[in-house]
Design goal:
With 144 residues, this protein is mostly helical. It has a single domain, classed as Serine Threonine Protein Phosphatase 5, Tetratricopeptide repeat (Alpha Horseshoe), CATH 1.25.40. Helices cover 60% and strands 0% of the residues. 29% of the residues are buried.
């Protein structure tokens, strides 16, 4: 019977600790790639740089688990040339495909973002890569 009061006291004292520790535990469950893509989405340049400056960093071509988008897909959609240039200079793959088979070049062509298209091609984007439907950047550009 003396054990029960101790157990009750433990639960009372431990409950606030569990509440405080929960956000930290949730963050521990997120992968480096997820955090990197979130920093890209949120436009947090300092965090993006920290991820890429880590020795042996491999997050630059991380793909979102829900749709397969990589960092270049995200910055091309918002037509952010600054981030685009930075990511390309750091080695981002311009031919990375998402779950629909789209590359950043296909997205840029669909948006009519000529300067981004030129920049991606200059950095090695393959103009002949098609999406899941076989459409290439040229087809998308003509359809616009």
């Amino acid at each position: 019977m003396t054990f029960r009061p101790f157990a009750s006291m433990f639960l009372i004292l431990a409950a606030p600790i569990a509440v405080v520790a929960t956000p930290a535990a949730a963050q521990l469950g997120q992968s480096e790639g997820y955090k990197f893509l979130q920093a890209i989405k949120d436009g947090k340049g300092d965090e993006v740089t920290k991820f890429l400056d880590k020795p042996g960093a491999t997050v630059i071509n991380t793909r979102d688990v829900t749709n397969g988008d990589g960092a270049l897909h995200l910055v091309v959609r918002r037509q952010d040339s600054t981030y685009l240039n930075y990511l390309l200079a750091r080695g981002a793959d311009p031919n990375l495909k998402n779950n629909r088979g789209e590359t950043a070049l296909l997205i840029a062509a669909n948006l009519g973002a000529t300067d981004i298209v030129e920049n991606l091609v200059k950095h090695g984007a393959n103009v002949n890569l098609g999406n899941a439907s076989g459409e290439t950047a040229l087809i998308r550009a003509v359809q616009r």
